[in-house]
Amino acid sequence: MRDLLNKIKTDAEQHLGAIVSEEELEKFRVELLGKKGALTQVLRGMGALSAEERPKIGQLANEIRASIENKIAQKKEALAKAALERKLESEKIDVTAPGVPVSVGKRHPIDQIEETLCDIFRSMGFEIAEGPEVEYDTYNFQKLNIPENHPARDTQDTFYISDAILLRSQTSPVQVRVMEKQRPPIRIISPGRVYRSDAVDATHSPVFHQLEGLVVDKGITMSDLKGMLAAFAKQMFGENTKIRFRPHHFPFTEPSAEVDVSCFVCGGKGCRVCKNEGWIEILGSGMVHPNVLRGCDIDPNIYSGFAFGMGIERIVMIKYAIDDMRLLYENDLRFLEQF
Ligand code: DAH
Questions:
Q1: Whose CA is nearest to atom 2 of ligand 1?
Q2: pLDDT tens, 88-136?
Q3: pTM of the entire structure?
Q4: Ligand 1, CB cutoff 6 Å, lining residues
Q5: Does domain 109-336 have CATH number 3.30.930.10?
């Protein structure tokens, strides 16, 4: 019996070393020390011992039991500590770790430039006016001094809804809509979509965007137009930007001019962006034609005004040196994410 007890002790000690979880440990404890446990079974057999042996074996059994209980308690503590450490380790937060990037959408480059343009003109006191994209022929052409059969219509062939209604080919009709409703002083810009029945290529699209400007008041001259555009060009393309007026013809302005900016990449020396010209065309402009003023019941003997119109895609392409307009409409994120 003594041998059996000692074997239980050494077996138990060995077994304990291999235990890795608290559940396993509890199972082991019950199997050894529980009511039906191995040690308990041995003690039950003590009745068969001699009166002399019984207390000695009893003492040994108690010592062994106490020793095993003690070791189980120690093991329990060690396992609990290890479990806590594992938990702490797994829940550790590295406050210095870089954050997880959140992907945020942004505005299309056309929208971004439109907003920049509006900001610049707003800072000069312009208000934003809007007009319909589905427009009357009279507003898109006739009231802008472009009568039926005028050759100027050819370059702006558009989509007709009916003989009298079309998709506007320019933002200029907003000039007329504002002048019919509002008395001078007038100082508006009007950004928006326009349509032309052009085939798609690197510089044409049947849908694109323009920004129109109009100022009407007493004593407005071409030098006001020039000074305002010079200030605009500096804000849009950089402090050193110069502007150049080239005579041109638009039916609704007289005189008319196309306006170029000095190339902001090469400063005028000639490069890829300005196609070696040193200058880049950005808009059309002029003094509002007396016929247009008169048609809106504004007396050209009292009032005068200037107007200008630019293609927003064109400005985007110049600003970012984009050589194919189609890139702006394909919605390829690899392209759009660059802006
Ligand atoms: N509407 C013209 C176009 O689409 C651009 C333009 C030229 C607008 C001269 C103007 C202007 O207001 O004065 O080509």
A1: 309
A2: 888 888 889 898 899 888 999 999 999 999 999 999 999 999 999 999 9
A3: 0.72
A4: 170, 172, 212, 250, 253, 284-286, 307-309
A5: yes
